[in-house]
Design a protein that fits this description.
By secondary structure, the protein is mainly alpha-helical. It is built from 36 helices and 11 strands. The strands form 4 sheets. The protein has a 3-stranded mixed beta sheet with strand order 3-4-8. Helix 7 packs antiparallel against helix 8, helix 12 packs across helix 15 and helix 13 runs parallel beside helix 14. The longest helix is centred in the first third of the chain and has 35 residues. The protein is elongated and about 150 Å long. The chain starts with a helix and ends with a strand. The N terminus is likely disordered.
């Protein structure tokens, strides 16, 4: 035995002893070769092994035997095994695709080749076991101090088999395995879908309880045969040392099938929740398959009874599963992997379509709820923010999108993200690009006010009455939020207070530390809208102008909707801010009462013109809107001569008003209001609702059928260019025709009595309304008022730039606030000043370079 550990002991051996050792070694090598070729006797192996072991050569003969097994395995098994896949590995990409569509490939070739090589491996293991038994027999009969590590010998052989196969592994063999498992799992899914189609289609209102939801049968009946086929392949791959490769292959196939199922269930239908259906499918197909596969392979499919149970953090299911008991740790790990992958895949799918989902909100609220649950588990909120901001910049914040569409999308975004993130942290990040873009549009304020008040600003699919304004919808939301907060915070006992404290969660790391959690928790859509404008005063001023325009163009005194809107605005902005608007509505109420009073006292008096042919005008056709001009926005004035009969009617009305309301007198704005006309011709009758200017123009044609432009303009009392612009309306309706006059700038307008004389233009439908141009507004716009008010400060700005040379917007703004404190006081916002400076630049009075304003040189 000393010879093994002391090679110098060979020097003490005689030549006969060395010859005996060499003879026994040669005989052992010959026996090994004969044994592996399966034609040699096994009876001589024991004495030869014993002789060599007596001389301390046990480990040497083990190494030789393993080396002989390796050479035989390479020669007889490995080469043949890989040759089975040469046709696929050597094929081009196009030819490989043809293999993929073959129904029996690679099942037949893989199963057959695995069976052959595993059979060869088992034969070699039998020979190795024979050697191990021989060594054990020798050790039992001898009194040796050391024993051979027999389990290690088998492990060395297994390691040898794995090493030989992995070092000769073709590049495409992992693809073969993935394709095999993919086809098998698709077949399994198809079988399960045919058997349990009705069971998999569940309704979100009929969800199972936790125990039933997690239940899996311990057998799959008709699917067991397929599972056994797959299990046989996995078992063979494991025995060859491909454990990790096999698991990677069927894992890849499972996740690919799961991804396909997510896309199938989710798709482009956002009105149906899919998360619960998806989780049930995971338990019915892939997890059930893994349960049976692990059982077939002999792995533990139930946890130890005394071991602590493992609970999925992704759902609140019991650790003990009906039909299985306590699931093994491996099965729970698979469950966690599959559910997390499903959440992440569904989340990515919904984030990619979030723009369309928000467009369809609130119909798409089930998709939003699914996305919320996914984000709770994955925590990938930053992915949502980055992706959605990119979609907004590419699809919404462009010159082709109208301001109204952008605002509607912004409101829907607020509502949807309020569901996903009630704290409003991610809304701050997503909404900032929208707000910045809207601040650069001139019609933003007008569109916001219109959306808030006109009855079409709210989302058409939202709950509530049809025609409700966004302001009314927001008021309902505010009441609901206030009620919820009262239930949550007010009147709670000590137990409820502890429950609320346990539900408390800190703000996400992305939250702005300057904003407290309590302020962020309540998302006020109206406040966010005001934030776009810059101040509530600008919104109130714009509303005041729009209200004035609407009231002046009313043909009756119905202002119920305006009163309701005003009351809602007073809730949000305070009564003092809306005082002038309230006076404007009171003017309409007083006008209705005064108008009825005057008509009752005057009766049906008639103003009759002295000239023959002039028609009678009754007081019944006149309804006057009497305004307190000091509280209304600046009114657009335009000189207009109305027909004498109308003028006398206005005079009679004014006299009676002075008698009732002495010493107050009426100052008529003859260009404002609406006139309902019925025009009767030889072969037709037409009705219109137009402005007083258009009515005055067409009424002149009662006296004579043709007018030249200069005479008609002088008769009405307005410039010729303004007349030509207004009279185009009657020409477009086929009421008048125009022709060249005597002079170059003269035009003849003629009434069309019969359509047989003029058929170039189609008849206008009855009751058509005149669409006034922007330049024909009754009230000066906010922009026009701003320019007028800022003109006072123009000389100051020019003088400042003369002294300083250049100045930033902030410096000009702060200087004006500092020095312009007396009447008129500078009280404009930074945005309003920037708008005025832009007008000065367009007038070439100023120029802007690198953020610095200077005088135009």
């Amino acid at each position: 035995m000393a010879m093994l550990f002391d090679p110098g002991a060979l020097d003490s051996l005689s030549e006969d002893a060395i010859s005996g050792i060499l003879h026994d070694w040669a005989h052992f090598c010959s026996l090994t070769t004969s044994l592996l070729s399966q034609d040699g006797p096994t009876s001589q192996l024991a004495p030869t092994v014993a002789s060599l072991c007596d001389r301390g050569l046990a480990f040497l003969l083990q190494d030789h035997f393993l080396l002989s097994l390796e050479e035989a395995f390479k020669r007889s098994a490995v080469k043949k095994f890989w040759q089975q896949f040469d046709s696929y590995c050597d094929a081009s990409a196009i030819e490989k695709a043809k293999f993929h569509v073959q129904e029996s490939w690679p099942e037949e070739i893989l199963s057959k080749s695995l069976e052959q090589i595993c059979s060869e491996k088992r034969s070699q293991e039998d020979f190795l076991l024979l050697l191990i038994e021989t060594l054990k027999s020798y050790e039992q009969n001898s009194k040796g101090e050391r024993e051979t590590d027999h389990p290690q010998l088998m492990s060395r052989y297994q390691l040898m088999v794995s090493s030989v196969l992995l070092t000769t592994l073709p590049w495409d063999f992992p693809d073969v395995l993935r394709i095999y498992f993919k086809k098998k799992l698709e077949e399994l899914n198809s079988m399960m879908a045919d058997g349990d189609n009705d069971e998999l289609e569940i309704n979100s209102h009929d969800l199972p309880n936790d125990a039933d939801f997690y239940h899996m049968d311990t057998s799959m009946f008709e699917c067991n045969g397929l599972v056994m086929q797959i299990g046989k392949v996995v078992s063979d791959l494991r025995s060859l040392g491909f454990t990790s490769m096999a698991e990677d292959a069927y894992s890849s196939a499972i996740f690919l099938l799961l991804k396909s199922k997510v896309n199938e269930l989710a798709g482009d239908d956002y009105r149906v929740p899919v998360l619960w259906s998806l989780k049930k499918w995971i338990r019915a197909v892939p997890l059930q398959f893994l349960h049976d596969l692990l059982g077939y392979l002999g792995d533990s499919i139930e946890g130890e009874k005394d071991s602590p149970s493992v609970k999925s953090p992704l759902a609140s299911q019991p650790s003990s599963v009906p039909g299985i008991g306590i699931p093994s740790e491996a099965l729970v790990r698979w469950q966690l992997r599959l559910e997390y992958f499903a959440y992440e895949t569904l989340q990515d799918l919904r984030i990619g379509k979030l723009f369309e989902i928000i467009v369809d909100y609130p119909d798409s609220s089930p998709a939003i709820e699914d996305l919320k649950r996914c984000l709770e588990y994955t925590g990938q909120h930053s992915k949502l923010v980055d992706s959605f901001i990119s979609s907004l910049k590419y699809r919404l914040l462009t010159a082709g999108a109208s301001t109204n569409d952008i605002l509607h999308q912004y409101v829907s975004t607020i509502k949807a993200l309020r569901t996903i993130d009630p704290a409003g942290v991610f809304l701050e990040a997503v909404g900032e690009p929208i707000r910045d873009y809207l601040r650069g549009r001139k019609d933003t304020i007008k569109c916001i006010v219109t959306m808030l008040t006109d009855g079409t600003g709210g989302n058409s699919g939202s709950s509530g009455n049809a025609g409700d304004s966004l302001l009314e919808e927001l008021n309902r939301d505010t009441e609901n939020q206030d009620g919820a907060e009262f239930e949550e915070d007010g009147g709670t006992d000590e137990k409820q207070a502890w429950l609320n404290a346990e539900r408390w969660e800190p703000d996400p790391v992305e939250a702005d530390p300057l904003k407290g959690s309590r302020n962020r928790r309540k998302i006020d859509i109206l406040e966010l809208m005001v934030g776009i404008i810059g101040s509530k005063d600008q919104l109130v001023n714009e509303y005041r102008v729009m209200l004035a325009e609407k009231l002046l163009n009313k043909s009756d005194y119905d202002i119920d909707s305006e009163i309701r809107t005003l009351e809602l605005l007073k809730i949000h902005f305070g009564e003092s801010s809306m005082q002038k608007c309230e006076i404007m509505l009171n003017d309409l109420i007083d006008s209705k009462r005064t108008n009825a009073n005057i008509k009752a006292t005057l009766g049906k008096s008639v103003a009759t013109g002295p000239e023959q042919g002039e028609i009678d005008v009754s007081l019944d056709i006149l309804d006057a809107t009497i305004i307190s001009s000091n509280f209304w926005p600046p009114i657009q004035e335009e000189e207009l001569n109305v027909p004498s009969s109308v003028d006398r009617l206005l005079s009679d009305y004014g006299k009676r008003f002075h008698e009732i309301k002495a010493p107050r007198k009426l100052m008529w704005k003859k260009n404002l209001g609406t006139v309902k006309l019925e025009l009767q011709f030889e072969d037709r009758s037409m009705q219109f609702t137009v402005s007083p200017v258009h009515a005055a123009i067409i009424m002149q044609f009662q006296e004579k059928p043709s007018w030249n432009s200069k005479s008609l303009a002088a008769e009405i009392g307005m410039p010729a260019d303004a007349l030509n612009r207004r009279i185009a309306f009657w020409i477009s309706k086929g009421v008048l025709t125009e022709s060249a006059g005597a002079g170059p700038d003269d035009t003849i307008f003629t009434i069309v009595e019969s359509m047989s004389d003029f058929n170039k233009n189609g008849l206008a439908s009855e009751g058509c309304q005149l669409m006034e141009e922007e330049s024909e507004r009754s009230v000066a716009s906010v922009e026009e008022q701003l320019i007028k008010e800022m003109t006072v400060f123009e000389k100051f700005i020019l003088g400042l730039l003369t002294n300083y040379g250049t100045a930033t917007l902030d410096k000009i703004h702060n200087t004006l606030k500092m020095f312009c404190t007396s009447e008129p006081t500078y009280d404009k916002s930074l945005h309003q000043l920037q708008s005025f400076l832009s007008d000065l630049i367009s007038e070439e009075k100023l120029e802007l370079r690198d953020g610095l304003y200077s005088l135009k040189k």
